[in-house]
Amino acid sequence: MTDALLLETREGDKTAAWWRQAAVYQIYPRSFADANGDGLGDIPGILSRVDYLADLGIDAVWLSPFYPSELADGGYDVADYRNVDPRLGTLEDFDAMVEALHARGIRVVVDIVPNHTSDQHAWFQEALAAGRGSAARERYIFREGEGPDGSEPPADWVSTFGGPAWHRVADGQWYFHHFATEQPDLNWDNPEVRADFVKTLRFWSDRGVDGFRIDVAHMLTKDFAEKLPTSAELDLIPKDGNHPLIDRDDVHEIYAEWRQVFNSYDPPRTAVAEAWVAADRVPKYASPESLGQSFNFDLLEADFDAPEFRRIVTENLALAATSGSSSTWVLSNHDVVRHATRYGIPVAQDSDAPTRHGGQWLLDGGDESVLDREKGARRATAATLFLLGLPGSTYLYQGEELGLHEVAAIPAEDRQDPTFFRTGGEEIGRDGCRVPLPWSADGDSFGFGSAGAHLPQPAWFADYSADAEASDPSSTLSLYREALRLRHPLQTGETLEWIETGRADVLRFARPNGWQVVTNFGAEAFDLGADAADVVLSSRALEGSALPGEATAWIAPAGLLG
Ligand code: GLC
Fold first, then answer.
1. Percent of the chain scored above 70 by pLDDT?
2. How many angstroms separate the alpha carbon of residue 160 from the centre of ligand 1?
């Protein structure tokens, strides 16, 4: 994209390309702010924090599901796609929130969960009541079981959250669920299912929503043979577009239809795919005929390591170029261990030590006492500033701007994630990054609400409160605000050029307008020489002209900031 086009993007409110280099802030509504004092965050809670979001300087918010739900999977089990959970507010509250965010120049992206509904959805209840062979069952994936009396599951498949992927209903048929039992998969061969999602996309687009995040976008279509493969056989089938369950080419027929819907609005509605697929399959989702953008999760699995970061950036910029989309960058979201924590867990030196991707190690029950919080925090802000300097859009997850760590120590009786229950506690699950935010250093639930928090907040949350950090110029929040503020005038075309640093653990790149980003992944300081005078932001204070270890600096030659 040229600088001229970009300028137009920033200035014109109705430009189609606003998403290409946006900083998008993910809100997990039930854990953001609780206005009605029931322990669950809600839409009026978000409305009450619009100033906070505007001061943060983000371009858009992405809201994880806020729809009616039994919360078998934190809201990703949707009982009604065109409504707001009464515990979270009303459609009028939603409209008021959108209006307030738009008034502050913040766009709104909502989460669409098309692979499965909740088992409480009217369709599924109807399917249960209507019985075998009914049209209502055709909206889902029902089959007879194996064995003489059909009491064996149709296949031995394991669900993504652990446990069996087929569940038997009272009349003896079985249904398929990729995720929890309470999340029956929809049958995307059914035209009624297709038509209903188009209706949902229009419903939210008509209410002013600017874009959609598509949950497990690579799983919707399936091809079930008469005799299902075993789990072991399934594992051997290549994921090349014809796998029976995952990343099938025909899923893009759905998105081509959605694209027509998106493009019928002005500006066109955007979409970003959550597609955990091989790198060479990503451009299909990111193409302008399909969803238009796809998450790149490579950095979630990377160490804080210069060569690894450089390889990932180079590969993903090339991939984005093949689809004509822009790249996305993510360090944290509601499904993974917060990056400040991942980076504070020692990298494995041998097989007995914590694994290199500290996140999984912690989820598997690793002992959080090995965590070096300060190291994690230093590396996290260095990595975030590196990301915010890259071409493309960056997705930030609520709480990371406060430097929050994962809450690993949650008592079993307070856990909510189905992963915990379906693995018999073997995996502790994702609750640790979903603990309600601390808004104040004291008070009930650290200012989250007046009736406690739905997941227990640890005492150390007091050190990360938004109020305290807002008035502390050296806080993580102040750093994020300054970075996001500077990012607008510094933003430029969607390319970068690597500059050799002479050190394997220091990365440096320049954007087309001369904006430079230097990240020191190592421990030893890196001398910036005369460029130190042009440093406009750094995650740690310079030592003379040197960038300390585990830090990032932004360099903006005179004139760039006007
Ligand atoms: C996605 C969501 C995750 C959810 C799953 C099933 O991966 O990000 O939170 O559990 O889909 O909907």
1. 95
2. 10
For ligand 1, whether the C-beta of 76 sits within 6 Å is yes
For residue 241, the surrounding DSSP H or E stretch is none
Question: Of all helices (H) and strands (E), which one includes residue 334?
Answer: none
116 vs 140: CA distance, rounded Å: 9
Angstrom CA distances, 340 to 357, 368, 378, stand at 12, 13, 8
Which residue, among 373, 364, 379, has the nearest Cα to 420 in the 3D structure?
Answer: 364
Beta-bridged to residue 23, according to DSSP, are: 394
- Token pair listed for 58: 């983000």
Between CA 438 and CA 448 the distance in angstroms is 6
Separation CA 359–CA 364 (nearest Å): 9
Q: Is the CB of 254 under 6 A from ligand 1?
A: no
| Cβ(77) – ligand 1 distance below 6 Å | no
Give the DSSP letter string of 199-214: HHHHHHHHTT--EEEE
| pTM higher than the cut 0.85 | yes
CA distance 513 to 503: 24
pLDDT in tens, 284-331: 999 999 999 999 999 998 999 999 999 999 999 999 999 999 999 999
For residue 224, give Cα distances in angstroms to 131, 160, 168, 245, 281.
21, 18, 18, 8, 22
d(CA 518, CA 418): 41
Per-residue pLDDT reduced to its tens digit, 107-143: 999 999 999 999 999 999 999 999 999 999 999 999 9
Expressed in angstroms and rounded, the spacing between residue 419 Cα and the centre of ligand 1 is 11
DSSP readout, 85-125? -TTT--HHHHHHHHHHHHHTT-EEEEEE--SB--TTSHHHH
Length of the chain: 562
Q: What is the pLDDT of residue 225?
A: 85
Q: Is 216 in the pocket of ligand 1 (CB under 6 A)?
A: yes
How crowded is residue 258: how many other Cβ atoms within 10 Å of its Cβ?
A: 24
Cβ-based neighbours of 117, under 8 Å, separated by 6 or more: 77, 78, 79, 123, 124, 183, 184, 186
Side-chain half-sphere CA neighbours of 206 within 13 A: 8
Q: By the 8 A CB rule, do 181 and 167 touch? A: yes
- Residue 55 pairs with which residues in a beta bridge? none
CA 230 to centroid of chain Cα atoms: 32
